[in-house]
UniProtKB/TrEMBL annotation:
This is TetR/AcrR family transcriptional regulator. InterPro entries: Homeodomain-like_sf, HTH-type_Tx_Regulator, HTH_TetR, Tet_transcr_reg_TetR-rel_C_sf. SUPFAM superfamilies: Homeodomain-like (SSF46689), Tetracyclin repressor-like, C-terminal domain (SSF48498). Keywords: DNA-binding. Pfam families: TetR_N. Residues 9-69 form the HTH tetR-type domain. Residues 32-51 bind DNA. PROSITE patterns: HTH_TETR_2.
Length: 197
Protein backbone atom coordinates (compact mmCIF):
# COMPACT_ATOMS: atom_id res chain seq x y z
CA UNK A 1 0.00 0.00 0.00
CA UNK A 2 1.51 3.33 -1.04
CA UNK A 3 1.42 6.60 0.93
CA UNK A 4 -1.67 7.91 -0.85
CA UNK A 5 -3.64 4.72 -0.12
CA UNK A 6 -2.56 4.78 3.54
CA UNK A 7 -3.67 8.41 3.89
CA UNK A 8 -6.99 7.66 2.15
CA UNK A 9 -7.60 4.71 4.47
CA UNK A 10 -6.86 6.87 7.55
CA UNK A 11 -9.32 9.53 6.35
CA UNK A 12 -11.98 6.92 5.60
CA UNK A 13 -11.50 5.30 9.03
CA UNK A 14 -11.79 8.68 10.73
CA UNK A 15 -15.05 9.40 8.90
CA UNK A 16 -16.43 5.96 9.86
CA UNK A 17 -15.35 6.43 13.50
CA UNK A 18 -16.90 9.89 13.83
CA UNK A 19 -20.11 8.70 12.19
CA UNK A 20 -20.33 5.76 14.61
CA UNK A 21 -19.88 8.16 17.53
CA UNK A 22 -22.80 10.23 16.21
CA UNK A 23 -24.98 7.13 15.70
CA UNK A 24 -24.58 6.30 19.40
CA UNK A 25 -26.39 9.47 20.39
CA UNK A 26 -28.39 10.64 17.37
CA UNK A 27 -31.08 9.05 15.22
CA UNK A 28 -29.50 8.38 11.79
CA UNK A 29 -32.18 10.55 10.14
CA UNK A 30 -30.93 13.49 12.20
CA UNK A 31 -27.30 13.06 11.20
CA UNK A 32 -26.20 15.41 8.45
CA UNK A 33 -23.18 15.14 6.18
CA UNK A 34 -22.25 18.67 7.32
CA UNK A 35 -22.08 17.44 10.94
CA UNK A 36 -19.94 14.44 10.00
CA UNK A 37 -17.70 16.67 7.91
CA UNK A 38 -17.13 19.00 10.86
CA UNK A 39 -16.51 16.19 13.35
CA UNK A 40 -14.11 14.34 11.03
CA UNK A 41 -12.41 17.57 9.92
CA UNK A 42 -12.84 16.78 6.23
CA UNK A 43 -14.85 18.42 3.48
CA UNK A 44 -18.34 17.25 2.59
CA UNK A 45 -17.00 16.56 -0.91
CA UNK A 46 -14.46 14.13 0.58
CA UNK A 47 -17.27 12.22 2.31
CA UNK A 48 -19.29 12.02 -0.90
CA UNK A 49 -16.19 10.94 -2.85
CA UNK A 50 -15.54 8.05 -0.44
CA UNK A 51 -19.10 6.94 0.25
CA UNK A 52 -21.43 8.43 -2.38
CA UNK A 53 -24.31 9.21 -0.02
CA UNK A 54 -25.21 9.48 3.64
CA UNK A 55 -27.14 6.19 3.40
CA UNK A 56 -24.11 4.39 1.96
CA UNK A 57 -21.91 5.86 4.71
CA UNK A 58 -24.29 4.72 7.47
CA UNK A 59 -24.44 1.26 5.89
CA UNK A 60 -20.64 1.07 5.76
CA UNK A 61 -20.37 2.12 9.41
CA UNK A 62 -22.72 -0.72 10.35
CA UNK A 63 -21.01 -3.28 8.09
CA UNK A 64 -17.51 -2.25 9.21
CA UNK A 65 -18.51 -2.48 12.87
CA UNK A 66 -20.02 -5.95 12.58
CA UNK A 67 -17.27 -7.27 10.31
CA UNK A 68 -14.76 -6.28 12.99
CA UNK A 69 -16.90 -7.84 15.73
CA UNK A 70 -17.17 -11.14 13.83
CA UNK A 71 -13.41 -11.16 13.11
CA UNK A 72 -12.76 -10.50 16.81
CA UNK A 73 -15.08 -13.39 17.69
CA UNK A 74 -13.41 -15.70 15.15
CA UNK A 75 -9.97 -14.80 16.51
CA UNK A 76 -11.16 -15.50 20.05
CA UNK A 77 -12.56 -18.87 18.93
CA UNK A 78 -9.15 -19.86 17.57
CA UNK A 79 -7.13 -18.92 20.67
CA UNK A 80 -7.87 -22.12 22.60
CA UNK A 81 -10.18 -20.61 25.23
CA UNK A 82 -12.56 -22.70 27.32
CA UNK A 83 -16.28 -22.58 26.60
CA UNK A 84 -16.74 -20.39 29.69
CA UNK A 85 -14.15 -17.91 28.40
CA UNK A 86 -15.79 -17.89 24.96
CA UNK A 87 -19.18 -17.22 26.54
CA UNK A 88 -17.69 -14.35 28.57
CA UNK A 89 -16.29 -12.92 25.33
CA UNK A 90 -19.70 -13.25 23.65
CA UNK A 91 -21.27 -11.36 26.57
CA UNK A 92 -18.77 -8.52 26.19
CA UNK A 93 -19.28 -8.35 22.41
CA UNK A 94 -23.05 -8.39 22.82
CA UNK A 95 -23.04 -5.59 25.40
CA UNK A 96 -20.83 -3.44 23.17
CA UNK A 97 -22.90 -4.11 20.06
CA UNK A 98 -26.20 -3.25 21.73
CA UNK A 99 -24.70 -0.11 23.27
CA UNK A 100 -23.66 1.06 19.80
CA UNK A 101 -26.59 -0.36 17.82
CA UNK A 102 -29.74 -0.87 19.90
CA UNK A 103 -32.22 -3.36 18.37
CA UNK A 104 -34.66 -0.56 17.47
CA UNK A 105 -31.95 1.18 15.45
CA UNK A 106 -30.97 -2.08 13.76
CA UNK A 107 -34.59 -2.81 12.84
CA UNK A 108 -34.99 0.70 11.45
CA UNK A 109 -31.81 0.46 9.36
CA UNK A 110 -32.73 -2.99 8.01
CA UNK A 111 -36.25 -1.86 7.11
CA UNK A 112 -34.90 1.14 5.22
CA UNK A 113 -31.93 -0.51 3.51
CA UNK A 114 -32.47 -3.74 1.52
CA UNK A 115 -28.75 -4.03 0.76
CA UNK A 116 -27.92 -3.93 4.46
CA UNK A 117 -30.64 -6.50 5.18
CA UNK A 118 -29.08 -8.85 2.60
CA UNK A 119 -25.65 -8.33 4.17
CA UNK A 120 -26.95 -9.18 7.67
CA UNK A 121 -28.73 -12.29 6.38
CA UNK A 122 -25.56 -13.47 4.60
CA UNK A 123 -23.40 -12.70 7.68
CA UNK A 124 -25.80 -14.67 9.88
CA UNK A 125 -25.99 -17.65 7.51
CA UNK A 126 -22.35 -17.84 6.42
CA UNK A 127 -20.40 -16.80 9.52
CA UNK A 128 -22.47 -16.49 12.68
CA UNK A 129 -24.35 -19.79 12.45
CA UNK A 130 -21.19 -21.85 11.68
CA UNK A 131 -19.40 -20.24 14.66
CA UNK A 132 -22.38 -20.95 16.91
CA UNK A 133 -22.53 -24.57 15.73
CA UNK A 134 -18.79 -24.89 16.39
CA UNK A 135 -19.23 -23.63 19.98
CA UNK A 136 -22.09 -26.07 20.55
CA UNK A 137 -20.07 -29.01 19.20
CA UNK A 138 -17.01 -28.07 21.25
CA UNK A 139 -19.23 -27.71 24.33
CA UNK A 140 -20.74 -31.14 23.71
CA UNK A 141 -17.33 -32.71 23.11
CA UNK A 142 -16.05 -31.31 26.41
CA UNK A 143 -19.20 -32.37 28.30
CA UNK A 144 -20.20 -28.79 29.15
CA UNK A 145 -23.25 -28.92 26.84
CA UNK A 146 -25.46 -31.97 27.08
CA UNK A 147 -25.37 -34.40 24.15
CA UNK A 148 -29.17 -34.62 24.60
CA UNK A 149 -29.56 -31.05 23.37
CA UNK A 150 -29.43 -30.88 19.58
CA UNK A 151 -27.81 -28.09 17.59
CA UNK A 152 -31.28 -27.37 16.17
CA UNK A 153 -32.63 -26.93 19.74
CA UNK A 154 -29.89 -24.47 20.65
CA UNK A 155 -30.28 -22.47 17.43
CA UNK A 156 -34.06 -22.27 17.95
CA UNK A 157 -33.55 -21.11 21.55
CA UNK A 158 -31.07 -18.45 20.39
CA UNK A 159 -33.60 -17.21 17.83
CA UNK A 160 -36.34 -16.96 20.46
CA UNK A 161 -33.96 -15.12 22.78
CA UNK A 162 -32.84 -12.67 20.09
CA UNK A 163 -36.44 -11.96 19.03
CA UNK A 164 -37.08 -10.70 22.57
CA UNK A 165 -33.81 -8.83 23.04
CA UNK A 166 -35.39 -5.40 22.61
CA UNK A 167 -37.84 -6.15 25.45
CA UNK A 168 -34.94 -7.44 27.57
CA UNK A 169 -33.02 -4.21 26.95
CA UNK A 170 -36.04 -2.22 28.05
CA UNK A 171 -36.19 -4.26 31.29
CA UNK A 172 -32.43 -3.80 31.71
CA UNK A 173 -32.80 -0.03 31.41
CA UNK A 174 -35.39 -0.10 34.21
CA UNK A 175 -33.20 -2.24 36.49
CA UNK A 176 -30.73 -0.87 39.03
CA UNK A 177 -27.68 -2.07 37.05
CA UNK A 178 -28.19 -2.46 33.29
CA UNK A 179 -24.93 -4.32 32.58
CA UNK A 180 -25.41 -6.73 35.49
CA UNK A 181 -28.99 -7.42 34.37
CA UNK A 182 -27.89 -8.21 30.80
CA UNK A 183 -24.98 -10.34 31.97
CA UNK A 184 -27.36 -12.29 34.22
CA UNK A 185 -29.73 -12.90 31.30
CA UNK A 186 -26.92 -14.15 29.08
CA UNK A 187 -25.55 -16.33 31.91
CA UNK A 188 -29.02 -17.80 32.42
CA UNK A 189 -29.32 -18.39 28.68
CA UNK A 190 -26.07 -20.36 28.60
CA UNK A 191 -26.19 -22.03 32.01
CA UNK A 192 -29.86 -22.20 33.02
CA UNK A 193 -31.43 -21.30 36.33
CA UNK A 194 -29.02 -23.48 38.31
CA UNK A 195 -26.08 -21.43 37.07
CA UNK A 196 -24.07 -24.64 36.59
CA UNK A 197 -20.83 -23.94 34.77
Amino acid sequence: MNGFEKRANRIKEKILHKTLEMMRTTDPKGIRIADISKAAEVSQVTIYNYFGSKEALLREVFVDYFDKAVRDFEDNMNEGHSLKEKVAHIIDLEKSAYRDFPPGLIKQMLAEDAELARYIEAMYRERTIPLTVRIIREGQASGVISEDVSIENVLAFIQIYMNQYEALLDMADKSADRDKFLEGMVQMFFYGLSGKR
